[in-house]
Design brief:
Layout lengths: L1 H24 L4 H12 L10 H23 L1 H6 L1 H25 L4 H12 L3 H10 L6 H27 L6 H36 L3 H21 L4 H13 L4 H24 L4 H6 L1 H25 L4 H8 L7 H12 L5 H33 L5 H17 L11 E4 L3 H12 L4 E5 L2 H9 L4 E3 L5 H6 L7 E4 L4 H14 L4 E6 L5 H7 L3 E4 H16 L4 H13 L26 E6 L12 H4 L1 H5 L1 E8 L2 E3 L13 E6 L1 H11 L2
Parallel strand pairs: 1-2, 1-4, 2-3, 4-5, 5-6
Antiparallel strand pairs: 7-10, 8-9, 8-10
Helix pairs in contact: 1-2, 2-12, 3-7, 3-11, 3-12, 5-6, 5-8, 5-14, 6-8, 6-16, 7-8, 7-17, 8-15, 8-16, 9-10, 9-11, 10-11, 14-15, 14-17, 16-17, 25-28
Length: 667
């Protein structure tokens, strides 16, 4: 059996690779490739899978990891903030879909129990697909992302009462009220346990684990929490996915959630592929081809019905029109829990085989078109808002658009044009102090538990995580940083960080601290803009003190140091800097710098005079680019521009000339 499962895994993943490579050339979503791989390998096509049950188990693991990561990124506080969406929005969406579906189904002649059950099936959307796509697009925390998350959470909870109610629809008469009451008590107990674990257990356990500095133990602890809570919820009749979501919420309350996410993501990407493949295996190709026209019409009808209900629900929640459209373009599909529930209905004789096959076809097609509609939702929404309408309505919609735009700016701190400091040792601590004094926004990344605890005590903005991992760098918004400082003493980790960082940004300046001169060339080649070797800096400091003892004037010593540093220590080594990207070579101007100088002293040759009168360009051979004055920037510099005391000057020129000018303007 084990060898058969291994054979199936190799076949379906190998087939997926070929299909996704082709889809990538056609710019089609990978999800469609997995669905197609499942259809081809399924029993209704080439029947390549013999261990179907085991593949379904692997797909469940993928859903567990997906919901676990979503839970980590939300937190208990974030969940409490969307309780209105969960209960009111989810209740309206599910209840409205069931009601309208049941009415339409009864009208066309289906039995009442089948009509209500179809309402159950069509009321559920795909948690796996929607949350994965929203997460990849960074939209989980946007208004429409929160709406989708809240409604999907409600759907995952309500699927349990639906399963309990299904035997009643089939004509069986168990004591459904007592069963639901017992289930409610179990859910309450699970929530209490989750709260205790989140507030008191998880932070301490992860604190102990992190202090061991054992990466394997950390990953093992994360996985045990994930599967442990999922198992707990499954024992009381709730879904594994909901338990995994609760587990993510537990870990989100600790300081180590970002690193936990980074560790779990590779597992999620592998196992979630099995989910989409297993869905594709369900499609009966012969039935699909023979009833293609009817299926397409039903798909359109289901999509319009679900969009109508979602749209009305979001409007009742008092969200702007743009958010309404983005939400309804996310939740129109039929979900994976509907597939699970349909099997229960089929076993109880509520839906006949032909209706079951129609339902499967509708489910797979709506799942397949989801990536396209979510991707193009902003453009479609914009077009709808710009449609020709009366001027009075136009004015109202423009106001809605403005409020919608403001609404979508997530309340969480959005780092931009900031400093990313990797490592909180002695150098990192000093740099953070300087950044704080200079009012430069910054964020720190470190995996050392002692440094992390010290930073927390100092109220520093720190992320616990390994900066060689892309997930951690994303949390630090490295793609929007102006400067990145790598202040660690591990050459191997530094090289990995440089490679990963340059995949996110080619414009940020990366400054690297190295212990030895031999590491400079590698750092430059991999993307560092400046490398500060401790060996050379120690040599410079020692020689500076030697020159002082020989009574060499301080300004000459400073010029000497500037010459060494501005030439990338070329005076001390024959190695020359190689730009990390040929496209940026024009920015590496030899012996020229762009710096800022504060006008502190009222030098009468310069201060209070125009650019032309002061002769900055002619006498000091520097170019004034801009002036920062009274919280505003003067960028239109002309010969008549006056320099005032307190100005911050942005200058371009040779380091020696800038140093000379600084002596005249500083105290």
């Amino acid at each position: 059996m084990e060898s058969m499962l291994l054979q199936d895994v190799v076949i379906i993943l190998g087939l997926s690779i070929i299909i996704i490579l082709a889809f990538n050339r056609l710019k089609l979503p990978a999800i469609l490739g997995f669905l197609l791989a499942g259809i081809i390998a399924g029993p209704y096509a080439f029947n390549l899978i013999s261990s179907k049950h085991e593949v379904e188990l692997l797909s469940e693991i993928g859903i567990i990891f997906l919901l676990f990561v979503i839970g980590i990124e939300l937190s208990l506080k974030g969940l409490a903030s969307i309780k209105k969406i969960i209960f009111l929005g989810g209740g309206l969406q599910v209840g409205g879909t069931i009601l309208i579906t049941a009415l339409i189904s009864t009208f066309i002649g289906l039995p009442m129990n089948t009509s209500i059950f179809l309402g159950f099936l069509f009321s559920l959307s795909s948690t796996a697909i929607v949350l994965k796509l929203l997460q990849e697009r960074g939209e989980i925390s946007t208004p429409h992302g929160k709406i989708g998350l809240g409604i999907l959470i409600f759907q995952d909870i309500i699927v349990v009462p639906m399963m309990l109610f299904t035997p009643l629809l089939a004509g069986e008469t168990p004591n459904i009220l007592s069963t639901i009451a017992i289930m409610a008590i179990k859910i309450l107990l699970v929530l209490i346990i989750v709260y205790i674990l989140a507030r008191y257990v998880a932070p301490k356990v992860f604190g102990w684990v992190v202090k061991t500095k054992n990466q394997e133990l950390f990953i093992l602890t994360v996985v045990v929490f994930c599967f442990g809570v999922a198992w707990l919820t499954a024992t009381v009749g709730l879904s594994l996915a909901l338990g995994a979501f609760f587990a993510g919420l537990i870990i989100s309350e600790s300081d180590y959630s970002h690193q936990a996410t980074a560790n779990v993501l590779p597992f999620r990407e592998i196992f979630i592929s099995f989910f989409f493949i297993s869905v594709g295996t369900l499609l009966n190709l012969e039935f699909f081809i023979n009833n293609l026209v009817n299926i397409v019409l039903l798909v359109i009808g289901v999509i319009l019905l679900k969009m109508l209900v979602v749209g009305i629900t979001v409007l009742i929640l008092k969200y702007p029109v743009r958010t309404v459209f983005l939400a309804l373009f996310s939740l129109f599909q039929v979900g994976e829990f509907s597939l699970l529930l349909s099997g229960v209905g089929k076993e109880n004789g509520i839906i006949p085989e032909n209706i079951y096959q129609y339902f499967l076809a509708i489910s797979i097609i709506t799942m397949g078109v989801t990536p396209f509609l979510i991707s193009y939702a902003p453009k479609i929404t914009y077009s709808l808002l710009k449609a020709p309408i009366p001027s009075a309505v136009r004015k109202r919609l423009e106001n809605i658009k403005k409020s919608s735009k403001a609404d979508e700016e997530f309340s969480e701190e959005n780092l931009h044009d900031h400093l990313v400091l990797i490592g909180y040792g002695i150098n990192g601590t000093n740099i953070s102090k300087a950044a704080k004094k200079a009012e430069i926004p910054y964020v720190i990344i470190d995996t050392n538990p002692e440094s992390f605890e010290q930073a927390k005590k100092n109220n520093e903005p720190i992320i616990f995580g390994d900066a060689t991992q892309a997930t951690i760098l994303k949390h630090a918004h490295v793609q929007e940083a102006r400067v990145i400082v790598i202040a660690i003493s591990d050459p191997g980790a530094t090289r990995k960080m440089l490679t990963t960082i340059r995949q996110f940004t080619q414009t940020a300046t990366i400054i690297v601290r190295t212990k030895y001169v031999k590491d400079m060339e590698d750092a430059m080649r991999l993307g560092a803009d400046e490398v500060v070797p401790e060996e050379f800096e120690t040599s410079i400091e020692i020689f500076t003190r030697v020159l002082k003892k020989y009574l060499v004037p301080f300004n000459e010593i400073q010029e000497f140091i500037n010459q060494i540093r501005s030439s990338d220590y070329e005076m001390l080594t024959s190695m020359k800097k190689s730009p990390h990207s040929p496209a940026l070579q024009h920015l590496n101007i030899p012996n020229r710098e762009i710096v800022t100088l504060k006008v502190q002293r009222a030098n009468h040759q310069i201060v209070g005079k125009t650019i032309e009168e002061s002769g900055i360009g002619k006498n000091y051979r520097v170019t004034l680019l801009a002036i920062h004055r009274d919280r505003r920037y003067l960028t239109e510099i002309s010969p008549a521009t006056v320099i005032e005391q307190g100005d911050l000057l942005y200058l371009f020129g040779h380091p020696n000339n800038i140093t000379h000018l600084n002596e005249l303007l500083s105290f």
